[in-house]
Amino acid sequence: MKLHRINALLIRHLYLYKRSLPRLMDIFYWPVMEILIWGFLSVYIDKLQLGGLNVVTVLLGAIVFWVLLDQSQKAVSIAFLEEVWEKNLLNIFVTPLTVSEFLTSTIFVGLIRIILAALVMIPLAFFLYSFNLFTLGLYLIPFVAILLLFGWTLGLFSTAVILRFGTSAQIFAWGFIVLIQPFSAVFYPVSALPKFLQPLAYMIPSTYVFEGMRHVIALGTLPLRDLAFGFGSTLFYAVLVVWFFATMFAQVKRTGRLLKLD
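Predicted structure:
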């Protein structure tokens, strides 16, 4: 793996963002809208004085964490689709660039997207709603690490599906993460789900992150069980998805469909 090739591909993607309003809106506009809508709703609910946890803290923390997951997932799948849309796959893979270098560059793109979105969302949440994400302290680090790894895993899975079925399956790049949102306990605990759906929720790594976040806010302690299950399940899915992607990539290369992907 050569860093200069990864850096070249990273710069290529960053140049696209520099001159593209829709791409910049994907980083800034939707996260800001999420913060405004859910922030105002949480303030309203908090004013009802229903008791229990601080609603503003719980909901805005969930939104920030969800956007981190969403951005990390999109970074991988959209970066691949960019090359498909521009018919650039042939130009990339006739070079010495390896698949691992290509995927590594998308991880860095995702990290930059997340940093940019966080630089807007976190100050906005603080000034509008007095919400400080850093009240989670060092507990924030392992939760964010799980979200980033799981997001990249989802992005790689979406890419593998697109490789297999062509761009007719590109809805996976945007829609797949929405399918798991209701079962990830983002805005409510797993106990709010019907009992027959709760085992499904616990099969999703992000569930442990959001459950753990609420535990930290309520009790101020790190839920080691949630952390262990979150990391363990994420690593399991990551290994499985890497195998699936490698299989799909080898198949489309062997059949010549990689250059005809449309």
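Summary: The two ends are 28 Å apart (CA to CA).
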